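Notes taken during the Thursday session

The instructor put the following on the board and asked us to keep it in front of us for the whole hour. The protein is Gnk2-homologous domain-containing protein. We were told not to look anything up and to reason only from what is written here. First, the residues (253 in total):
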Amino acid sequence: MYSSSSVSRIILIYVSAIQLLLINGKLSLNVTNEYLNHTCLVSQGKYKLGSEYDKLFKNIMKMFYKNSIRGYDLFGDSTFTAILQCRGDSYGPKCRDCFVTALAALRRRCPWYKGKIIWYDQCLLSMDSKYSVGQIDYDNNFCMSNAKKVVEDGVAFIQVWNILIGDLTKLATTGDNYTLYSVGEKRYKGDMIYGMVQCAVDLSRKACQECVLYNRFHFQVCVNDIRGARVVGRSCTFRLEFYPFIAKQVRNI
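Then, after some discussion, the predicted structure tokens were revealed:
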């Protein structure tokens, strides 16, 4: 027989276990907004408080805060380019919260640098001291991969993930209402592979295709035979996982 205190402890442990499962379930769908990486573009120099660059920067960030509710914003002239790009499913308050977090982190990590980029799970915030709208950034890209490898038939897996990313790129850049964003899934043996492709809002559909193709080739060693990886950049990103990481990831490719 259990005492009342023992029963209470068992119930508490059971409830805690259920809560932990729910939390882990949410994390698998990236409800959190994980910091990924940042870079300070040191070669572009610094600006001073009260300078024309500082005034422009502050005005554009105010505009971004206002417009972040729609999921993106963009500004470009000869002396300053800024881009806010939230993940395709992160708009409204999610995008605004990510923007606020990213801006505060950039000020802390790259103080007074004119050029800087920061990546979070749900958004990208980029600033440049020259006009770079529509141009593919081939320099500021990186890969994050799972430590686990595909155990069997790696060649078949490479074929599947290449087809999936190719199909998602096509989906993101074709049609009258193309969005430069797509998600989908494809079966590999007994598993399902989930994928996402997204390009920055300033790219044309052709530039988006070129960007993804470049990163697929450049980072293939990081992605091949790995059970989950993402290639992230200023201009485009793609991701592959063996679990759904977007809440409404239901499209079969």
